Amino acid sequence: xxxxxxxxxxxxxxxxxxxxxxxxxxxxxxxxxxxxxxxxxxxxxxxxxxxxxxxxxxxxxxxxxxxxxxxxxxxxxxxxxxxxxxx
Length: 87
Prior knowledge:
- By secondary structure, the chain is mainly α.
- The chain is built from 2 helices and no strands.
């Protein structure tokens, strides 16, 4: 194998590695963009994006869905039987 053949092999290998690297980065970026678009669409339609975990949801303060409303009421600690977090 001559010096120029070896240089061409290294250049091709670098191209393939670079293509794979940027292909994976592009794929991850695409997944992130589609995930954010879906999240915004669900919020716009008034659907839950927190998968039922209301306390950690970014839209919790403005959410009017039944699960979020009941979670807010339970956190306020109503005065009924077993309604508070007093210890």
